[in-house]
Amino acid sequence: MIRIETDGRVGSLTIDRPEKRNALTADALTALETGIERLETPVVRLRGAGPAFCAGADLEAVAALDGERAAEFARRGQRVANAIEGSSSVVVAVVDGPARGGGVELALACDLQVATPDATFAEPGVRLGLFGAWGGTHRLPDVVGDGNALDLSLTGRVVDADEALRMGLVSRVVEDPETVVASVAGNDAAALRAVKERLRDDASAATQDDREAEAFAGLVEQQDLANRG
């Protein structure tokens, strides 16, 4: 269900269950976590096979869970999102077609969210008596603001790629997301890692300043800047 591939400086994690709109079972989440931990390329693309990005949790699988196993299922999804966010690779969500619920949450955990014009987004859990529990209740307002997060989560409405771009849910809307993946992968790997670590750091401002200076110094020591035009 999860295909793991490497092509030079870019790794790929493909959710390959198009007949179910790439809905994720517990086993698929485990495989996805393993994949993101295994890939060591500077850039990783996360995508779905077929006409959808990811429909989120497999509702048939969720329906069979009791309370304890449901909590573990939520924690498993959280671990995947945290692994994406904490990866040393720059992770790019390539969203083509519908992203729903957990699919939106996994995209939010990525460093860049690149959508095609056919991408759509929704948090429909409220219509099913549920809500997104893979870190979405804190990542969504962090990314789009409290007002947009409440609007999406309390109505379950679908937004298209252009509206998603306006509210900050996606980084770009392009016909060919591979151009963005290639532009990131063409940059210095150590610099990419350092920039991600710094921008993802949630320590105090003073601590971040110290870490930023140390990271910058480390990069300078690695580079032959005098011979760069």
Describe the fold and architecture.
This protein has about 230 residues and is α/β, with parallel strands linked by helices. It folds into two domains: about 1-185, 2-enoyl-CoA Hydratase, Chain A, domain 1, CATH 3.90.226; about 190-225. It has helices spanning about 25-40, 60-65, 65-85, 100-110, 135-145, 145-155, 160-165, 180-185, 190-200, 205-220; strands at about 1-5, 10-15, 45-50, 90-95, 100, 110-115, 120, 160, 170-175. The strands form two sheets. Strands 1-2-3-4-6-9 form a six-stranded mixed beta sheet, with helices on both faces. Strands 5-7-8 form a three-stranded mixed beta sheet. Helix 1 (about 25-40) links the parallel strand 2 and strand 3 (about 45-50). Helix 3 runs parallel beside helix 4, helix 4 crosses helix 5 and helix 5 packs across helix 6 (about 145-155).
What tags apply to this protein structure?
229 residues, alpha/beta, 2-enoyl-CoA Hydratase, Chain A, domain 1, 10 helices, globular
Rg, rounded, reads 18 Å
Helix content percent band? 40-55%
Q: What is the name of the CATH class of the largest domain?
A: Alpha Beta
Structural class label: alpha/beta
What's the CATH H-level superfamily name of the largest domain? Answer: 2-enoyl-CoA Hydratase, Chain A, domain 1
Biggest sheet, in brief?
6 strands, mixed
